[in-house]
TrEMBL record:
InterPro entries: Cro/C1-type_HTH, DUF5753, Lambda_DNA-bd_dom_sf. Residues 18-72 form the HTH cro/C1-type domain. It comes from the Bacteria. This is Helix-turn-helix domain-containing protein. It comes from Streptomyces flavotricini. Coiled coil: none annotated. SUPFAM superfamilies: lambda repressor-like DNA-binding domains (SSF47413).
Length: 294
């Protein structure tokens, strides 16, 4: 398994190239689907990178678009081949949010707002285990442990030395966390103390910024729920807004959608406590846990 090949990102890049070829040809997805005797939804899924694409698919599409540049066809065929390789997360079996992990693995920066929990990239193993058990009570212990292991593996992106891909530096993480996430008892008080101490420790890393949105701020742009904005080092990879769901997730890539969420995030950062205030605030909550307070 090649560690420097990310199938999720390859699919996205390939999908964008295929969409560009279609648009340059002046064809609609429906017209292409009719030519290939497939559904329009298949063409759409291939172009948005949500479906695995075969070299045969690429060949057929290039024929429809009358691509004469053999080097371009060969390049697209190679991307299709790479996109079918397995990322590191496949070693853990069926992971429901594998598309997101693939994006996160190659992202240059991640801006996230979490209203209910400490972000996964900043969780201790004990907190992650207790959180998963509480959120998914019917999950088998072995599956809980698998999810914890995946979460811990994801955290390697926050360290340049642990990064499996030498072409991508440490992930630049900016997290705005609601006060509710810090006061929600996940596990016992000692577990929460350890988690919050770890949060302060991580906030001192050069690539990590943590801000808390206190209850006293009242209504703010994040009241509608969790979301994350992923940006990539390659200019050809569009920024993605990720919204987690119970049974399915939402990925927004249209420029207008990304702009709205980016502006909303700037308001969140402006209204939240600054970095030093955040550390002091978290330390006060640690003291309350240690003293048995609420």
């Amino acid at each position: 398994m090649a560690s420097n090949v990310n199938p999720t990102v390859r699919r996205r890049r390939l999908g964008m190239e295929l969409r560009k070829l279609r648009e340059d040809k002046g064809m609609t997805a429906e017209q292409v689907a009719e030519r290939l005797l497939v559904s329009q939804s298949k063409i759409s899924r291939l172009e948005n990178g949500r479906r695995s694409i075969s070299q045969r698919d690429v060949r057929d599409l290039c024929d429809v678009y009358e691509v004469e540049d053999r080097r371009l066809v060969d390049s697209l065929m190679q991307m299709a081949k790479d996109s079918r390789q397995q990322g590191w997360w496949h070693a853990f079996g069926d992971i429901p949010y594998s598309v997101y992990i693939g994006l996160e693995t190659d992202a240059a920066s991640l801006r996230t707002y979490e209203p209910q929990m400490v972000p996964g990239l900043l969780q201790t193993p004990e907190y992650a285990q207790a959180l998963i058990r509480g959120a998914l009570p019917e999950t088998a212990p072995a599956d809980v442990e698998k999810r914890v292991q995946v979460r811990m593996h994801r955290q390697k992106r926050l360290s340049e030395t642990d990064n499996n891909n030498p072409d991508v530096g440490p992930l630049r993480l900016w997290a705005v966390i609601d006060e509710a996430a810090l006061r929600r008892h996940v596990g016992d008080p000692q577990l929460m103390i350890k988690q919050l101490e770890y949060l302060i420790e991580q906030s001192e890393q050069p690539y990590i910024t943590v801000q808390v949105m206190p209850f006293s701020m009242g209504a703010h742009p994040g009241v509608n729920g969790q979301y994350a904005i992923l940006e990539f080092p390659d200019a050809s990879d569009s920024t993605v807004v990720y919204i987690e769901g119970v049974t399915s997730d939402l990925y927004l890539e249209k420029a207008n959608d990304v702009q709205k969420y980016s502006v909303m995030y700037e308001h969140l950062r402006a209204q939240a406590l600054n970095v030093e205030q955040t550390r002091q605030f978290i330390a006060e909550i640690i003291g309350q846990y240690a003293g048995g307070g609420k």
